[in-house]
Each structure stands twice: as structure tokens, then as C-alpha cells.
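Task: sequence design from structure.
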């Protein structure tokens, strides 16, 4: 097989039977699309996270189960309730109910991952049936046989070499004869327990599989918007799709909150130099965005992104003055708890840094545990500020031209800026603002720097 294309469809794209038929058309229109990666149907993962929490009473479990059954049954109904798949989905729903009841008694992160994985299992079973019922040769594949991860339940890290070997031996041979349908988001550890890659992780799964299968020519991310926009079109209606963008810019956008791509998606694509396409499964004719190593245009200001739910930690200690190793100690504590620090600034006796409230873990819990705080407090005074948002301006060569700061900050002169990070990369300028001022900051930056005749700089 020479050219293989991996197509990933997100939750809204597989929300119901009609949406699945749109996806089927996209898949079958391109004979190179041999591997399909799916999210759970829209709303399903949220319901499963609640069912896995262990904190619901019986009535609340039943209420969530009813909603879940309604989503799955409506697809089955439109398929004409074929016997075998109907029995399979019913069995899976029954298992979810049992596990949710078990979570009330005994709850842990491994069980949460096991429960939330059912969303992708069910959507892929149903979509395989959709393709087969339309006369195509489709095969359901349990991605856990190849998607090896560590055991960090809720946000597991993939083990690239193991995935590459598994995909070559067990997945690639199937692509000669079938359209293979498999799950995003989920994986398994060395002893076969189900893990998840973190919320929104199906994009990452598609990129990892694209990297792992020999001859992958493109990774397509089909979602509910026709491409990567200059900002979230839900926030700013004037936002427009970007026809092409570099890997570096797309990675910065995803990292700083453009939900259209999971932040890790670009890394596997970069490693193998595989172009990534983002388009709308509902309106494929509108085209989309190509993410590539190089693009013709390299504007100073490309896009603006928003990441909500940020925590600002200010760590203060007189021992910092002229001391070596203070930051090393602090960061070793964050590393021990698997927490990624985003922005950082320092002064003579204090360090301010930001972290993401959930770190995008699948279980939705705060990453700031009491033990972590106790360890930090043994070194320094700790102040915690919540209710903050990170605003990131993404572009090219921003720190290499005069006037970037003036152009950016004069656009938002009535916004209170809590922290600024600039200069580590030529691709971004980030700052922290109170949550309630974030939409205004995004709209003003977009208006001044990305619409019509944007403010130009030299
Ligand atoms: P899926 O379920 O297909 O993975 P997501 O909801 O995760 O879809 O991502 C798509 C959403 O990302 C869009 O509906 C849009 O609101 C949001 N989004 C945020 N930033 C951007 C952006 N810069 N361009 C396009 N969409 C964005
Ligand atoms: N279903 C998972 C979630 O909702 C993964 C994904 O959609 O990418 O987070
Ligand atoms: Mg997504």
C-alpha cells in the first residue's frame, strides 16, 4: 500500500446517524482513507465522566444512563436495529451501569478510564455498522491492541516505539483489505488496563496512528468548523478560516487553547512530516486548513487563542535571593506530580507561574492536590489565584520586529493584565487576565490585529 490517509471524526461528527452518514461519505469519497479514528458521540464522554465519579446516587445514575441510552439507541433505531450490533450495544450499556454502581463503592482512576472508554467503543461499533450497511468492507479494530501508554490514568503518555511496532504488525496489514474503524482517546498500559490520553485526545490518537502506520500521507481532523480559524468563531463571529498554517503556529494555537486540535496532535505529524488537514464533516465542500512544515505566508499576527480555567501560583521566599537551585526544587515537585507549568515569570524573591486547572485530565479533577501544596509550602509561601484566562497571540517573528508590544497592548488598554510572557518563542505572546475580561481582550485583539486592514508593524 502506498498512500494512506487517516481520518478522525470528533464528537459532533458522530453525534447521530445522519452525522455518521456524512462521515461515511467523506471516508468513501477518498480511496486512500483506510483508517478511521472516532471520538465518542457528542455528550457521551461527559456523561461517562459523571457516571465514573463515584459520587452519584442511584437516581442520578439512572438519569445519566437514560441520556446515554437515548443517544446510542437513536443511532441504532436509524440503522434499523440490526440484531448483532443491537445486542452488543445493549451489553456495553449494561456493563457501564454495573461499573457506575461499582464506582460508588470503590472508586479509582483506573476504573474511571475503563468507564469513559466505552464512549469510543460504542461509536466505533456503530460506525463500522454504518459503513457495512452501505456496502463497504469495514472492520472494527480495538486500538488498545496497539495504543500502548504508561499508567498515568486520565492523561496517559503514549509509548511511541511500542505503538509503531504494534501498528506495523497488527494494524497495517488490515488496511489492504478493509476500511479500519478504531477508537481515539483510549489506549492500554503494559498489563492491559484501559487508559485515556486526556480530554480531546482523539486528535492525538489519529496523529499517533498516522505516525505509526507506514506510508501515511495525510492526517485529516474532521470536526464542526471548516478549518482552524483566526480565533474561536464562537467567541468572535468575524473570525475566518486560515487556509494554511505551519506546524509551529498550529502547535502554539493548540497549546494555548484552540480546542479545535488537542495540544499534542502536531508532534507526531512533525516527527514524520505528515501534513494535517482540518475541515468540517458537515460542510466538507467549504475546504479547510492545511497544517504543514512550511507555508507561503508568514504573517506577524496569525491568530489569537484563549485558555480558560488557569491557576496562577505565586511562590515567594527570601531564600531565593542569590540562591541556586530554588527553581529546580520547585519544578521537581511539579514533575513528581506530573504537572505541566505553562507561563513563568520571576522577581527577586518570588516566582509566578500558571497551570491548567485540570491539566486536561479525563477525570476533570483539579491537578492541585493537598499533598502537592504541602510540599511547595515546605519551601516557600504559596498564593493561589483562580478564575483566570490565558490569552495568546500567535504569529511569526513577533519578537524580531519593532512595535509588537505597542500594537498588542494599545489594542487592549482597558484590560487588566496580570502576567505577561514573551520572547521564549518568536511565535507567541501570552498574557493572563481575569476570566470576565478575556472575551473582550480576544475580541479587541482580533479586531485590531486580524480583521480588515489590521494595525501594521514594521
Ligand atoms: P471535536 O469534537 O470535533 O474534536 P472540538 O469541540 O474539540 O471538536 O473542537 C472544535 C471547536 O473548537 C469548534 O467548534 C470551536 O468552537 C473551537 N475552537 C477554538 N478555537 C478555534 C479556532 N482557532 N479555530 C476553530 N475552532 C476553534
Ligand atoms: N471523547 C473524548 C472527549 O470528549 C475524546 C475526544 O473527543 O477527543 O474528551
Ligand atoms: Mg476535540
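Answer:
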Amino acid at each position: 500500500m502506498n498512500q494512506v490517509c487517516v481520518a478522525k471524526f470528533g464528537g459532533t461528527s458522530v453525534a447521530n446517524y445522519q452525522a455518521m452518514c456524512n462521515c461515511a461519505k467523506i471516508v468513501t469519497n477518498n480511496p486512500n482513507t483506510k483508517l478511521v479514528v472516532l471520538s465518542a458521540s457528542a455528550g457521551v464522554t461527559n456523561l461517562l465522566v459523571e457516571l465514573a465519579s463515584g459520587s452519584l446516587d442511584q437516581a442520578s445514575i439512572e438519569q445519566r444512563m437514560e441520556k446515554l441510552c437515548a443517544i446510542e439507541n437513536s443511532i441504532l433505531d436509524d440503522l434499523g436495529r440490526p440484531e448483532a450490533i443491537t445486542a452488543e450495544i445493549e451489553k456495553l450499556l449494561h456493563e457501564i451501569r454495573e461499573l457506575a454502581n461499582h464506582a460508588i463503592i470503590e472508586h479509582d482512576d483506573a476504573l474511571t478510564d475503563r468507564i469513559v472508554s466505552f464512549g469510543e467503543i460504542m461509536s466505533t461499533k456503530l460506525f463500522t455498522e454504518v459503513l457495512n450497511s452501505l456496502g463497504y468492507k469495514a472492520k472494527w479494530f480495538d486500538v488498545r491492541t496497539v495504543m500502548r501508554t504508561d499508567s498515568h490514568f486520565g492523561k496517559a503518555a503514549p509509548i511511541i516505539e511500542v505503538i509503531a511496532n504494534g501498528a506495523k504488525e497488527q494494524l497495517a496489514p488490515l488496511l489492504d483489505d478493509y476500511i479500519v474503524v478504531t477508537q481515539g482517546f483510549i489506549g492500554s498500559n503494559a498489563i492491559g488496563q484501559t487508559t485515556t490520553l486526556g480530554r480531546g485526545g482523539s486528535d492525538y490518537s489519529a496523529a499517533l496512528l498516522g505516525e505509526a502506520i507506514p506510508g501515511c500521507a495525510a492526517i485529516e481532523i474532521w470536526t464542526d468548523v471548516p478549518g482552524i480559524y483566526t480565533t474561536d468563531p464562537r467567541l468572535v463571529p468575524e473570525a475566518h478560516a486560515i487556509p494554511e498554517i505551519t506546524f509551529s503556529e498550529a502547535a502554539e494555537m493548540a497549546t494555548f487553547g484552540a480546542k479545535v486540535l488537542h495540544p499534542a496532535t502536531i508532534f507526531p505529524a512533525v516527527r514524520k512530516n505528515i501534513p494535517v488537514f482540518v475541515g468540517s464533516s458537515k460542510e466538507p465542500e467549504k475546504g479547510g486548513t492545511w497544517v504543514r512544515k512550511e507555508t507561503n505566508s508568514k504573517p506577524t499576527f496569525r491568530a489569537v487563542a484563549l485558555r480558560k480555567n488557569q491557576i496562577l501560583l505565586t511562590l515567594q521566599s527570601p531564600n531565593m535571593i542569590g540562591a541556586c537551585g530554588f527553581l529546580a526544587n520547585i519544578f521537581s515537585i511539579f514533575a513528581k506530580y506530573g504537572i505541566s507549568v505553562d507561563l513563568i515569570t520571576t522577581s527577586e524573591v518570588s516566582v509566578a507561574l500558571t497551570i491548567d486547572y485540570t491539566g486536561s485530565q479525563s477525570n476533570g479533577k483539579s491537578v492541585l492536590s493537598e499533598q502537592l501544596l504541602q510540599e511547595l509550602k515546605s519551601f516557600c509561601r504559596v498564593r493561589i489565584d483562580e478564575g483566570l484566562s490565558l490569552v495568546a497571540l500567535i504569529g511569526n517573528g513577533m519578537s524580531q520586529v519593532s512595535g509588537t508590544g505597542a500594537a498588542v497592548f494599545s489594542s487592549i488598554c482597558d484590560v487588566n493584565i496580570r502576567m505577561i510572557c514573551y520572547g521564549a518563542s518568536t511565535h507567541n505572546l501570552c498574557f493572563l487576565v481575569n476570566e470576565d475580561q478575556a472575551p473582550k481582550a480576544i475580541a479587541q485583539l482580533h479586531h485590531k490585529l486580524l480583521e480588515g486592514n489590521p494595525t501594521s508593524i514594521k
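The two ends are 49 Å apart (CA to CA).
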